[in-house]
Amino acid sequence: MPTVNPLSESGKISSIRENIIEVEFPGKKPSRHELLTLEGDRTVKMEVYTSGRDNTVYAIALTDVKHLYRGAKVISTGEVILVPVGSETYGRLLNAFGEPQDGRALAGHIKRPIYKNPPPFIDFVVSKEVLETGIKAVDFFTPFRKGGKVGIFGGSGVGKTVLVLELIHNVEFVKHTNVIFAGIGERVREGQELYQSLVDTGLIKGTALVFGEINERAANRFRVAYSAAAMAEYSRDEEKKDVVIFIDNIYRFIQAGNELSTLLGSIPSEDWYQPTLSSDIGMIQERLVSTKNASITSVQAIYVPADDLADAGVQAVLTYFDSVIVLSRAVAGEGRYPAVDILASSSSVLSPEIIGQEHFDIYTEAVSVLKRFSQLNRIVSIVGEYELTKTDQLVYHRARKLQNYMTQNLFVTEEQTGRKGSYVSRKKTVADVKAILEGKFDNVPEDKFLNLGSLETLVNAKPA
């Protein structure tokens, strides 16, 4: 329940437009983000969103509007939204306001405002350390920078959430790093399944979950990212601990902001997004950075509407990522998971100074082989494989084996597939790819490479 300063300003509601409430203040207007409440019902929460005409402000409803009416007396609390931070939040399921949703009380916790300016530019640190994930396609083609940002792009049903969950499993279980998960605009069923999965595997103890489901107000969904960012910043700045923050789905954050903008009557921008699209994204992304204190590694899933990467909302967030993983519907249709479109994905970490000369050289050769394969595949689909030269046939089959090798059984899908998940180190993946490109497994059928761990599991294969 919000506390109210007796000297706080009071006003009255002059209009209600769905979740947007216009409040008139005869005296000093409250500042942006300040919480308002009804004089007779302190459970009602509203947040000042923008200044209106003359002496009015527009507030967004954070709770049910059924108790609101024109002329109702409103009091400014003098506070902003505060959320619990620190070790007490790990193993807990919270909403955008930091209220427990797992049926257990949260006592003795520290609270911090969800709004904070980004750290000074001189405090930024860019690490050259690679964060290993154990997922072959990721570690080899789109390696992560510790303290960097990773974007997982894809349409519906291509495996974004599954990949995010596998990364949570591997980072927490193998690296023993604290994890914060922000669920924005996801279905309640998906949130429940994630929570139960983390409980069943014992991973919940190192994970703090903050949810704003699809059925909640746009204002609540919009604030989930801010709440999660505040929790990550506390770990970085005050506890001085490295943290990994997962956001699923940052596109729903954009949509929530667009809904609020539409309710306020703002003139839309490109592709009918809100005119504040760039600043909305920037206010979150610029906070999720690494400093001299510790690192924040950010992994964000991005829904791609109509599988169109040129969408203005997708492009607005794309520029913030060090590593971009594009999941392809065509690859998923072939049954290859994780369904990474290797040639469409990229990473700024791919330089000899960071990943080492051997990995870089083998990566360059592998990309060259896959590009040649995409050309040969068009020819094969028309005239058949035997019209290729012997050299091209060799390249064609090695590329197919390389594609199949990049498939992998995941820990988080063991119950669905019945196949045990695998963790493959980056060093081992580089060695395996080198062996495939050198032709050491030319005599092994392509289907044998599907859903492997490392090539050591090819017990029946005899190197050429």
Please tell me about this protein's structure.
The protein contains 13 helices and 18 strands. The chain is an alpha/beta fold. It has 3 domains: 10-79, Thrombin, subunit H (Beta Barrel); 83-348, Rossmann fold (3-Layer(aba) Sandwich), CATH 3.40.50.300; 356-457, Bovine Mitochondrial F1-ATPase, ATP Synthase Beta Chain, Chain D, domain3 (Orthogonal Bundle). The strands form 4 sheets. The chain has an 8-stranded mixed β-sheet, sandwiched between helices. Strands 1-2-5-4-3-6 form a 6-stranded antiparallel beta barrel. Strands 7-9 form a two-stranded antiparallel ribbon. Helix 4 crosses helix 5 (250-263), helix 10 (357-383) packs across helix 11 and helix 10 (357-383) crosses helix 13.
| CATH architecture label of the largest domain | 3-Layer(aba) Sandwich
Physical arrangement of strands within the biggest beta sheet: 8-14-13-15-16-12-17-18
| Separate helix tally | 13
Count of extended strands: 18
- Annotated CATH topology of the largest domain: Rossmann fold
Can you tell me the overall shape? elongated
CATH superfamily of the largest domain: P-loop containing nucleotide triphosphate hydrolases
Total domain count: 3
Most strands sheet: 8 strands, mixed
Distance between the termini: 72 Å
Q: Stretches where pLDDT falls below 50 for ≥5 residues?
A: none
Mind telling me the C-alpha Rg?
25 Å
Q: Give the helix level as a range of percent.
A: 25-40%
At the first level of CATH, what is the class of the largest domain?
Answer: Alpha Beta
Strand content: 15-25%
Mean pLDDT: 89
